[in-house]
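Re: the 304-residue chain
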Amino acid sequence: MHTKAVITCDNIEKKYKNFTLSVDHLEFPKGFATALIGENGAGKTTLLEMIAGLRLDHKGSITYFDEYSEEDRETNPIVKNQIGYTGTGNYFMPQWTLSQTKAAQELLFDGFDGEKYDAILSDLALNNGNPFEGSKKVNTLSDGNRTKLMLAGVLARDTKVLLMDEPASPLDPLMRDKLCNMIQDYIASSDGERSVIFSTHNISDMENVTDYAIFVENGAVVEQGFVEELKEKYTYIKGDTEDADAVAPHLYDCTKNKYGFEGLCLSEELDALAGYDLIKETPSLMQLSVGIMRANTKLGSGNR
């Protein structure tokens, strides 16, 4: 599928003492929800923070909306107003009250809708209309409620792209489902002009909202594509233990136990497996993720 890019990264490099993030070329498709998937420390947060402008000390270039540079992002308010970001750190000052978070965002962002903000807080059960709730401080909120507060802030703005670092992690299952609905509604409200980029460890919970997946391991992009196309590119294989050693060289990854084996296989390799008694399935995003991550991880092999 050919699509326009909402954000493009070229020749990105960021070096740390024991880690380097290196991205030659990466395009995030416009009008879709893109998931950044990878192990802890793979480079997902670093990449999102570069795009958001929280990290400026890197090589390479980032282009926004097919026309703006990183310099434009820093100097042209039009660009920043079109970008919403939620992270895992202290988004609001901990001593701020809920009323102050609203006032600060009204001051900082053009297009911030205070009434919409209040409505979202109410919908997320953070504001029930009690006049004393405005004095509640950020540092008294749970991690999940602080995430709700950040979500209300970005969703009350008139933006074109949301950058969300692990938005589902602090949320309970019901709220994760609601988050997926909020992302879908955000994208659907703009006739293809709005996009979402998020990192996640909660792959199963976020599968229904993920259109495009980018797999990051050891500071590099190791696979990417629209989820439905990836599900055609790979096949999930299950078989009996006695066939495991013969089949394993043709699998992208292979997990064995006393009951049998299973693993991810490139669909183009299926002809080489003819003659074996195998179960072939369309992989879920979780199975794709685990298989691709296992094939590229630095972790020990364990029972693989």
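Residues 230-296 form one domain.
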